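Thread: Deoxycytidylate deaminase, structure

OP (GT): Posting the sequence first so everyone is looking at the same thing. Length is 170 residues per the record. Can we get the C-alpha cells written out before standup tomorrow? I want them in the notebook alongside the other entries.
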Amino acid sequence: MTRRKSWDTYFMDIAYMVSTRSQCPRRHVGAVLVQGKKLLGTAYNGAPMGVPDCSEAGCMLVEEYEIKRVDGQEQVVAKQRCVRTIHAEQNLLLFTDRHDREGSIVYVTDQPCWTCANMLANSGIAEIVYHRSYPKDQDKVMALMNQVGIRFRRLENYEPPAGTDEAVTN
Ligand SMILES: [Zn+2]
Ligand SMILES: [Zn+2]
C-alpha cells in the first residue's frame, strides 16, 4: 500500500508540474494558490502573453553585483540574471483575486526573491511554503515575513516528481 500523500506534498507536486511549462532555460519556477485545500490558481515564470519568450528570443540577461561573505571576507561577485520573465509568484498575483487570496497559502518551488516576497507580503496570503532555497535574499525575506506575520517555511524531506526538478543556472 502506498502512503497517501500529505497536502503539502500534493500541492508542491502540482507547483513542480506547473514549473515545467516555463520556457526560461535558467530557472523553472512554479507557484500555486491554495485556499482551504482548494486549488485557486497556478503560475510559472514567463514573458507576458503575446511576447516571444526565452526559448524563442533568448534570455534577457542583466548583470548584477552581489556582496558575498567568504571566510569572513566580503567579496563583490558579478552575477547574471534573466529579466525577460515575470516571476511565477507575480503571475500568480496577476491571475488571482484579492478576495480569494485572503488567508490563503502559496506553494512555490523556489524560495521567493525579494521583489516577489515584498508583493506577496501585501497580497492577503497567510502562508508561503517553498522547496528549493534561494540564499541571496533569504535574510531580508525572512525578516519581512516576520514583520508582516506571514508563515514562511521550507518543505523538508520532499522529493519533486521525476523529471521536474531542473538544474538551475545562476
Ligand atoms: Zn530567461
Ligand atoms: Zn521573484
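GT: Both are above now. Quick notes for whoever picks this up: The chain has six helices and seven strands. Residues 114 and 140 are 7 Å apart (CA to CA).
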